[in-house]
Specification:
Among the domains are: 125 residues, Orthogonal Bundle (Arc Repressor Mutant, subunit A); 190 residues, Orthogonal Bundle (Tex N-terminal region-like); 122 residues, Nucleotidyltransferase, domain 5 (2-Layer Sandwich), CATH 3.30.420; 74 residues, Beta Barrel (OB fold (Dihydrolipoamide Acetyltransferase, E2P)), CATH 2.40.50. Helix content is 50%, strand content 11%. The strands form four sheets. It has a five-stranded mixed β-sheet with strand order 6-5-4-7-8, with helices on both faces. Strands 11-12-13-15-14 form a five-stranded mixed β-barrel.
């Protein structure tokens, strides 16, 4: 009964500490992000209550002090990191309490630890261990000798004192055996000392180096890692892509990777901590310190630095990936057009599909324009006929195999000049065509038809189509399989959700995949909306969404502002004005002597609105300004206007590329070391970071973005390795 009471008291104490820590964390985050405590506290409460980041940033500006998605995301992520620290802290305290090792002083150190590394340093001496050399020495009763030696009394002769510990029954056969065991214990103390670990950690972080060498006998296989065969680079300065490249080479068995630090400085640092004077005991301690560093502390620090730099590299790689994905998802849409889409090919022909303005498949066929004049003529006739039959307004051609040849074929057909011919990046289309999503959409079509449909839809609405594909398959990241997959998924999901909600979703035409990313919904509610739509027809108002199974008040609050209903009776249902604010707009219209539709049409009426008159307890100027801006352009698409683009004529394969050429191109991927550019030859060229601009560039993402149109100058063409070096210094 007494033990049970102590356990309950202990758990209650943890709860009280957690409450204190939460408030401490709020203040800490506010300081780190240069925000007010109230802003962080309010955001944390909203997140805890289930609000999404897009909803908080768009519709709760008064509560958070107008924090944007970046700030809200940073708060969420830091809260999660600190929660992980708290969880580990709680686990350690519980373990120590159960083993009756927890003291007030130790608990205080645990509670004060601000990082996982410091927390683990505090816990290290108390962590349950496997049998080590020091453990065995303790079992032989040598710890008192180790303590005596570590005191370093000049009057003590360690060799003489060791003689008292000789005991054959315990495996201590001589004084030297006793001294060796005592040194093992001291070496472990050195390794577990918090101050020692902190100083050596600083040394490794500040002055450590990555060193890689090729595994002997694998030089030929490891050719792609040739740059790292004999490589040394400071830990503090190594960029993300090189850290990940070195780690991949080591994981694949081609490279040996280690982290080193100046050994003399490391040993000197430890000797300053543990050695006092020049006695015989001090000599024993010096030997133990040297052993403790080389055998225990050095490998421990190497493992820790490898993990820390991996985390740093992961976050940077994921950041770049996320920025690229955002640019691709928000690429300008052509809009609602009837499209003829082509998935080009040589031997197997070109798969052709016709899509109506809603993106629905109306026809599919195959033409063989690259198999002789007769087949080309037949294909041209068929294309012309399909364009006329389905009132085609644009032609989309995938940029894979045979794309430029197919483009030339289409341009030679006498089609209306009003029909634009557009090359479309088809990365991931094959993944989509074989996916469960594609099979559900087109159960009776083969993968080639599905792929062509995806190409056509990417032209009219890239966002709506790309959400159906795993972002890792879209081709705008590097080392995506090497980084922390949980962190990567969360970051990419954040980006997709941000883009979807920023653009808004037409509820009556959206796919399940698109609806899934709407704030407050998710896969099940998205499916329920589709089911309701199929059973009852199109939604006529946002209010009708409340009739969807399991779509309760909370989900409605989170989702409604991001869902659009075109041609609804209430014009606000097609805007980004949240239903909770409709009464405000109604009041504005009434005060202006008109209708809501009048406010949307008449700039002069909106100019008469005095926003201060509508400020209330829950609504302030930030929301009111958003409302007025939305009334000016209801349901506006934030994406850029679509612009036509064409590759250079006559430059269709890498053999056509010559040094000095100036060519139009599209940025396909941005990495830490530069940007890749599609110039229409089936092989992207690389603009190294040094060739991006005349000025110094630290982050390529500051200069170019994915899907940006540029003019490049060809610097070099390596046909053997299929590499093209480019410059954008004069073409941005």
């Amino acid at each position: 009964m007494r033990t049970q009471f102590r356990s309950r008291r202990f758990l209650y104490a943890i709860v009280l500490r957690d409450r204190h820590l939460n408030q401490t964390h709020i203040a800490k985050i506010a300081s780190e992000l240069s925000l007010k405590v109230g802003q962080v506290n309010a955001t944390a409460d909203l997140l805890e209550d289930g609000a999404t980041i897009p909803f908080i940033a768009r519709y709760r500006k008064e509560v958070t002090g107008s924090l944007d998605e970046v700030a809200v995301t940073a708060i969420r992520d830091r809260l999660n990191q600190l929660k992980e620290l708290d969880d580990r802290r709680r686990s350690i305290i519980k373990s120590l309490a159960e083993r009756e090792l927890l003291t007030d002083e130790l608990e205080k150190k645990i509670m004060q630890a601000e990082t996982m590394a410091v927390l683990e340093d505090v816990y290290l001496p108390y962590r349950p261990k496997r049998r080590t050399r020091a453990t065995i020495a303790r079992e032989k009763g040598l710890e008192p000798l180790a303590e005596l030696i570590l005191d370093q009394d000049r009057a003590v002769d360690p060799a003489v004192e060791a003689g008292a510990f000789v005991d054959g029954s315990k495996g201590v056969e001589s004084a030297e055996d006793a001294l060796a065991g005592a040194r093992d214990i001291i070496a472990e103390w050195v390794n577990e000392d918090r101050t020692a670990r902190a100083r050596i950690r600083r040394l490794f972080s500040g002055q450590g180096s990555f060193q890689t060498t090729v595994v002997k006998g694998k030089e030929a296989e490891a050719r792609k890692y040739e740059d790292y065969f004999e490589w040394v680079e400071p830990v503090a300065k190594a960029p993300s892509h090189r850290i990940l490249a070195m780690r991949r080479g080591a994981r694949e068995g081609f490279l040996r990777l280690q982290v080193t630090a100046p050994q003399e400085q490391a040993l000197s640092t430890l000797e300053d901590l543990f050695i006092r004077g020049h006695s015989a005991c001090s000599a024993q301690v010096k030997e133990a310190v040297d052993d403790g560093y080389k055998r225990l502390l050095l490998p421990s620090m190497e493992t820790e630095i490898l993990a820390a730099t991996k985390e740093r590299a992961d976050r940077e790689a994921i950041r770049v990936f996320a920025e690229n994905l955002r640019e691709l998802l928000l690429a300008p849409p052509l809009g609602r057009k009837s499209v003829l889409a082509i998935d080009p090919g040589f031997r197997t022909g070109c798969k052709v599909v016709c899509l109506d303005r809603q993106g629905q498949l109306k026809n599919s066929d195959v033409v063989y324009p690259h198999q002789g004049e007769k087949m080309a003529a037949s294909g041209a006739s068929k294309i012309a006929s399909l364009c006329k039959q389905y009132d085609i307004e644009a032609i989309a051609i995938g940029n894979g195999t045979a794309s430029r040849e197919t483009e030339s074929f289409i341009r030679n057909i006498k089609l209306s000049e009003d029909i634009p011919i557009v090359m479309v990046n088809e990365s991931g289309a094959s993944i989509y065509s074989a996916s469960k999503v594609a099979r559900e959409e087109f159960p009776d079509e083969d993968v080639t038809v599905r792929g062509a449909v995806s190409i056509g839809r990417r032209l009219t609405d890239p966002l709506a189509e790309l959400v159906k594909i795993d972002p890792k398959s879209i081709g705008v990241g590097q080392y995506q399989h090497d980084v922390d997959q949980t962190l990567l998924k969360q970051s990419l999901d954040d980006v997709v959700a941000s883009c979807v909600n920023n653009v808004g979703v037409e509820v009556n035409t959206a796919s399940k995949q698109l609806l899934t990313y709407v704030s407050g919904l998710g896969p099940q509610l998205a499916q329920n909306i589709i089911d309701y739509r199929n059973e009852n027809g199109s939604f006529e108002s946002r209010r009708q969404l409340k009739k969807v199974s399991r779509l309760g008040a909370k989900a409605f609050e989170q989702a409604a502002g991001f869902l659009r209903i075109r041609d609804a009776a209430n014009p606000l249902d097609s805007s980004a004005v949240h239903p909770e604010s409709y009464h405000i707009v109604d009041s504005m219209a009434a005060d202006a002597g008109g209708l809501v539709t009048d406010l949307m049409r008449d700039d002069s009426l909106r100019a008469k609105i005095r926003l201060q008159n509508y400020v209330g307890e829950t609504v302030g100027l930030p929301t009111l300004n958003d409302i007025v801006q939305e009334l000016a352009k209801p349901g506006r698409d934030p994406r850029r206007q679509f612009e036509m683009f064409s590759f250079a004529e006559g430059v269709e394969k890498i053999e056509d590329v010559e040094v000095g050429m100036k060519l139009p191109g599209i940025i396909t991927n941005v990495a830490a070391f530069g940007a890749f550019v599609d110039i229409g030859v089936h092989q992207d060229g690389l603009v190294h970071i040094s060739q991006l601009a005349d000025r110094y560039v630290k982050d390529p993402g500051d200069v170019v973005k994915v899907h940006q149109k540029v003019t490049v100058t060809v610097l070099d063409v390596d046909l053997a390795r299929k590499r093209i070096s480019l410059s954008t210094k004069d073409g941005l």
